[in-house]
Amino acid sequence: MAVLIPKSDYLNVLMERGLLYQCTNLEALDQKLTNNKITAYIGFDCTSNSLHIGSLLQIIMLRWLRKTGNEPIVLIGGGTSKIGDPSFKLDARKLLSEKEVYNNKSNIKNILDKCLSLGEVSHDVLMVDNIEWLNKLEYIKFLRDYGAHISVNQMLGFESVKLRLDREYSLSFLEFSYSILQAYDFLELHRRYDCVLQMGGSDQWANIVHGVRLIRRVDNNKVYGLTSPLISSSSGVKMGKTTKGAVWLNEDRLSVYNFWQYWRNTKDIDVIRFLKLFTEIPLDEVSRLAVLGGTEINEAKKILANEVTQLCHGKAAASAAAEISQRTFDFGGISEGLPKVDIDRRKVEAGLSAVNAIVYVGLASSKSAARRLIRDGGVRVNNSTILNESVVIAGKEINDAGFVKISIGKKRHALLRVI
């Protein structure tokens, strides 16, 4: 992609903050954004009951679109979720029932509501569901009207499709149809709302290009596609993936405290880049934080954790998570806001081995792993290090509030709630 110094506020923000990866015609889009406000959309399928932080860049892009005077559309994939996007997947997605799609859709709408402040009286983000038009499609008419404009040759050339075919994995006609339906979504939004830009992650590039081409061929109009990069940490781990699984945006899947801690534990080398990508902190403030060194970089990590948690869970929840962390780490206290696992009081008072307790609260996957942690001096019970694998937790370890705190290293903690 040719280097361009954008004139439009929106593209300038995306480029300065590292949010722009590909665009079908960057110069023409920049000119259109400079001369007019535009309508753009991003789609979110409902194949899970929560989004994870892999979707945060798209949410941020919609927020910046609105901040720069343009009109965002959130497209909920109530229809396309019944098929599932096969892009860069080696196996077909599990087909979801109507009830599963409905329940997932409800949860995802709530998350987007919170992240985009859709509940505010002055909000200007339109949310629509593609089930509104996809459920009404007549198959023969759809094929006649649009089938001739879709090139199978081009579809076979996209990396997301070649990945399956080159490895001789099955690609069903159902999955093959997904890209066509997403292209049709763009056409519908263009006709209904004069939407001229579809955005998404870089794994959506092929699907987005199909929509751009379909609108050009069917309506003879020029529209655009733009993608954000797929983000990984400096260690090469895909953003949002951890040893424990995805970092979910739904509090039922991941506590606010653990969400906050994920960002607080960002590696030093990543924190400034993530402040640019995942927050709306002005870049001059980010530059000030960039010069911090040593332990001072922890201040930047706390700001990152607070900002992203506030975006996804609200100001009060972010403040509570920060306070829990301060009490836990800065003052070594036992905080009731930490992840808790209930246990029968009789089991503790009878003597519960530290090894079993570590596994029970989920801080180690096996007893052998727990023993290694103890031998390495990485385990504390109520802030006291234990070095003997035979240590037993008994009634005297239960504090007045009915908890026993177990810690692994400096950053991983859990509470046994004795009931």
TrEMBL record:
<keyword id="KW-0067">ATP-binding</keyword>
<feature type="binding site">
    <location>
        <position position="241"/>
    </location>
    <ligand>
        <name>ATP</name>
    </ligand>
</feature>
<protein>
    <recommendedName>
        <fullName>Tyrosine--tRNA ligase</fullName>
        <ecNumber>6.1.1.1</ecNumber>
    </recommendedName>
</protein>
<keyword id="KW-0963">Cytoplasm</keyword>
<dbReference type="Pfam" id="PF00579">
    <property type="entry name" value="tRNA-synt_1b"/>
</dbReference>
<keyword id="KW-0694">RNA-binding</keyword>
<dbReference type="InterPro" id="IPR024107">
    <property type="entry name" value="Tyr-tRNA-ligase_bac_1"/>
</dbReference>
<dbReference type="GO" id="GO:0003723">
    <property type="term" value="F:RNA binding"/>
</dbReference>
<dbReference type="GO" id="GO:0005524">
    <property type="term" value="F:ATP binding"/>
</dbReference>
<keyword id="KW-0436">Ligase</keyword>
<dbReference type="InterPro" id="IPR002942">
    <property type="entry name" value="S4_RNA-bd"/>
</dbReference>
<comment type="function">
    <text>Catalyzes the attachment of tyrosine to tRNA(Tyr) in a two-step reaction: tyrosine is first activated by ATP to form Tyr-AMP and then transferred to the acceptor end of tRNA(Tyr).</text>
</comment>
<dbReference type="InterPro" id="IPR002305">
    <property type="entry name" value="aa-tRNA-synth_Ic"/>
</dbReference>
<feature type="short sequence motif" description="'KMSKS' region">
    <location>
        <begin position="238"/>
        <end position="242"/>
    </location>
</feature>
<dbReference type="GO" id="GO:0004831">
    <property type="term" value="F:tyrosine-tRNA ligase activity"/>
</dbReference>
<feature type="binding site">
    <location>
        <position position="182"/>
    </location>
    <ligand>
        <name>L-tyrosine</name>
    </ligand>
</feature>
<comment type="similarity">
    <text>Belongs to the class-I aminoacyl-tRNA synthetase family. TyrS type 1 subfamily.</text>
</comment>
<keyword id="KW-0648">Protein biosynthesis</keyword>
<feature type="short sequence motif" description="'HIGH' region">
    <location>
        <begin position="46"/>
        <end position="55"/>
    </location>
</feature>
<dbReference type="InterPro" id="IPR002307">
    <property type="entry name" value="Tyr-tRNA-ligase"/>
</dbReference>
<comment type="subunit">
    <text>Homodimer.</text>
</comment>
<keyword id="KW-0030">Aminoacyl-tRNA synthetase</keyword>
<dbReference type="GO" id="GO:0006437">
    <property type="term" value="P:tyrosyl-tRNA aminoacylation"/>
</dbReference>
<dbReference type="InterPro" id="IPR024088">
    <property type="entry name" value="Tyr-tRNA-ligase_bac-type"/>
</dbReference>
<feature type="binding site">
    <location>
        <position position="178"/>
    </location>
    <ligand>
        <name>L-tyrosine</name>
    </ligand>
</feature>
<feature type="domain" description="RNA-binding S4">
    <location>
        <begin position="358"/>
        <end position="390"/>
    </location>
</feature>
<dbReference type="Pfam" id="PF01479">
    <property type="entry name" value="S4"/>
</dbReference>
<feature type="binding site">
    <location>
        <position position="41"/>
    </location>
    <ligand>
        <name>L-tyrosine</name>
    </ligand>
</feature>
<dbReference type="InterPro" id="IPR036986">
    <property type="entry name" value="S4_RNA-bd_sf"/>
</dbReference>
<keyword id="KW-0547">Nucleotide-binding</keyword>
<dbReference type="InterPro" id="IPR014729">
    <property type="entry name" value="Rossmann-like_a/b/a_fold"/>
</dbReference>
<dbReference type="GO" id="GO:0005829">
    <property type="term" value="C:cytosol"/>
</dbReference>
